[in-house]
Amino acid sequence: MISGVPEIDLTSPDVVADPFTAYGRAREQGPLARVSAPGFSLWVLTRYDDARAMLNDPRFEITSGSFTPPPGIPEDCLPYMRTMTEMAAPEHLRLRRLVAPAFTARRAADFRPRLEPLVEALLDDLPRHQVDDGAVDLMAHFAAPLPIDVICELVGVPDADRPRWREYGAAVAAGSGQRFGEAIPAVLEGARAAIARRRAEPGDDLLTDLIRAQDDDGGRLSDTEMVTMVWNLVLAGQTPINLIANAVHVLLSHPDHLARLRAEPELMPRAVEELMRWCGPMLLSIPRYAREDVELFGTLVHKGEAVSASIAGANRDPRAFTDPETLDLGRPAGTAPHLGFAHGPHFCLGASLARVQTEVALTALLRRYPGLALAAAPHEARRVPDPGTWRLFTLPVTL
Hints:
Elements lengths: L6 E3 L3 H5 L1 H11 L2 E6 L2 E6 L2 H8 L4 E2 L16 H4 L7 H11 L5 H21 L9 E3 H6 L1 H11 L6 H13 L3 H23 L5 H7 L10 H14 L1 H16 L1 H9 L4 H12 L8 E3 L3 E3 L2 E3 L4 E4 L1 H4 L36 H18 L4 E2 L21 E3 L1
Parallel strand pairs: 1-2, 3-9
Antiparallel strand pairs: 2-3, 4-6, 5-11, 6-9, 7-8, 10-11
C-alpha cells in the first residue's frame, strides 16, 4: 500500500497470469490504485463510474508521452506516427468529425457482405496449416490475418499486394524488431499508392469516403493525415485480432457457453459485447496526463502525472454489473456499457467495425468447424506478458 492506496506490481507472476483478479482485488480495496513496473508507474482508477468519468474528464489528456514509439523509425516516417489519438482536443475533434462518417455502425453493417468472403477464405485455408498432430494455430492463420485483410478491402489494396500487407500486419502485431521497423515505411508507401489510386478512380471504400470528407468550413484531410489514418487503421487492427483469439479461447474453455451459442446463434451480437467485457484485450486505458493538480479520493495527483483506467477492473465492477464475474452471453441489453472500447472523446472510432468483424468471424468459425477444440489444456495457453493488453502468443486448435 502507498498512503493507503493499493499497489499492483505489473511484473508479479500472479498479475501477469491473472490481471482480472489482481485489478478486482485492488478495486474492492479502494477506487484508486498505483501500478508499477521497472521505469514505469501510474495512478489507476479501479471502479467503473470513476474510470468512465476520468476518460471523459478534460483535466486528463492523452499526449505523445502516452505512447512508447518503436525504435528505429526512419526520420521521414515520423510525421505519420502522430495519430489522431495523441492530438490535442481542437485538432483531434476536427479530424474526428471529418472521418467519423466513414466509421458509423451503419457503414460497418453495410461492409458485412464484403467481410464474409474474407472470413470464409481464411477458414477454407485452415486445413492446409495443420501440423503433424492435426493442430492448427488459429492466431497465426485466422485471427491475425483477418484484420489486415479487412484493412486491404477497406482501402482498396489490390489483390496482388495483399500478401505483402499480411506480412506488414504480422510485423506490426509483433510490436518490435527489425521486421517492425521495415514494415512502417512499407505500409506508408502502400497507403500513399492506395490514396493516389482512389483519387484517380473513386470506389466504394473507406479511402473514397475519406477523400470526400469535408468539415463545415470545407477543410479537407491533408495527404499526410490520410496516410496517417491508414497507419492508424493498421495499429487499430490489433484489437479485433486479440478479441477474436480471446473469445475463441474462452468459448472452447467453457463448453456450456459454446453449446448455447451454437444453439442460439442469434445471441452473437450480445455475446460479442459480453466477451469484450469479460475477456477483452484492453486491461488498462491509454495513459492520460493531469493538466493540473487534481485530488482523487484524498490523494493529490500532481500536474504531469500519468493516470489510467483499469478496464479489467471496471468491466467486472459489481457496482455496475450484476454478477460480473459470471460470463453471460445473453446478458440483457440496457446494462452499463463496457469500457472495452474506452469512453469519451477517445472512444474507439473503429468499434463498430471491430464488432462486426468479431461477429462474422465467430459465427463462421463455429459453423464451419463444429468439432473445433483446444489442442492443449486451457491453462496452458501462452500469453504475451503485456501489462496493458490481454493477448495470446498462439491458439492451437484441432478442427
